[in-house]
Structure formats: C-alpha cells, structure tokens
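As a warm-up, study this chain.
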Amino acid sequence: MKELSTPFYTADESVQTQRGIGLGANFVEVVNQYGEGFRRMPFVEEFSTGITYYDRENNQKLSFYFDNDEEGSWLSYISFR
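Now compare it with the structure written out below.
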C-alpha cells in the first residue's frame, strides 16, 4: 500500500487512503468510511461525478471521482491536497 501525501492525484490502483479506500471501491464504501459530510461535484471533466471532503482544521481536501452518478459506481480517481 502506498500512502497519500499532499498534493497527490492518482489513478494508481495500488494507492489507498488511510481508511483503506482505493480505486475500485464504490460510492457506498467511500461514504461508509468518510461519512455524509461531503460536497457533491456533478460532472467533473471526464468523470460523471465527484465528492469532496474538507478538513478545514488542516486545510486539506480529499476528493473521489466516479465513473457515473449512481450510488454503486466505481471509484476511478483520487485527489488529495
């Protein structure tokens, strides 16, 4: 497992977040690990949808991008900054 450091953008399947989320996880798995406190980003460049979690205390942002906007959609890209 590779750890994320800031700034970081990946489509590398071996990378996981500290909570065990990596590419191939689905929307429900991400929300189960990170909670409902996200901001939804409809249609982000080549992805159908994305969600972002903000850590204002540490001034960090963790974003997950999915291949479609259905709740079972697969995670295609992770961004951490």
